[in-house]
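During data preparation, a discrete fold description was generated, as reproduced here:
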Amino acid sequence: MSDAGSNSSTVKLIVTDIDNTVFDWVTYYVHSFTALLRKVETITGIPYERLASDAREVFTRHGSIEYPFLIQELASVDQHYGDDIDRMLAEAVDPGRKTFLKTAESWLVPYRGVRETLEEMRRRLPEVPIVALTDAPRYVAMWKLNKLGLLPHFSAVYGLADPRIPTCERNGRVKVDPEILLKHLQQSNFGFKGRIRILPDEYEKPGTRGLKTVLMDYNLDEDPAHRGSVLWVGDNLRKDVGLGQRLGVRTAWARYGVLSDESLYRSLHEFSPVANVHKNASFAAGSPDAPQPTHTLGEFAELLNFLS
């Protein structure tokens, strides 16, 4: 459904969020990360609740709930293995990482119709860039898009800085398997040929500077009239729709990305930093204070209604 209004002749740029917009991030991450912690619990005997609490501290320190070197940074795991980093990597980190990846195979999938919709957008409007803008670290965002099979459909990816490599404070040794370390040092782009932009942490939503940078890069920032030719898609009424309204772009609210399973949110909050919970809070649908989107999407494929 949508308000009356725009057609393909006015669309010069499509910008979309990733998490809970092109795929169900909450379901994927809760299942995968919980499986990781349960695996580490089984290996080390450290209770799940302690691991989850330690994870919250690590995520807070690194500024991302998707920090990939989580296990070796957990205080309880560090205490368990001491300076025996090789044993920790082999006995806990590698099995935990593989458990996460194996579980993710079942849950890291696009929402229905996303891949087909992106393909159709490319076919109809080959001259219109499709940009991914995310608060996730650039490497993590591109890894997810690659696993989803969606990366080739984007013209550009804008994300935050790549994760820092963990080192042992006692001896200075890097706490990452050499093969994994090499992949991160090479800053893999997964064969992506489009534009890649790494944004400062302070450009995170709901601040306007991330989306504003995209508009500037595509020369759609100076004239307010040009901003009406930008379609910005996201799932959060406050962070995404509100942001788009402040910049004067058209907004499409991914209503389908608002999860109704409260048990998953409760599980997420077990290891999510408090600041992360607050910054991702949204207005309830129908709230009189909620920003009103230009378009409301029951599914991603409805974007095609505005491009025909």
In short: Residues 4-9 have pLDDT under 50 and may be disordered. The longest strand covers residues 130-137. Residues 51 and 76 are 7 Å apart (CA to CA).
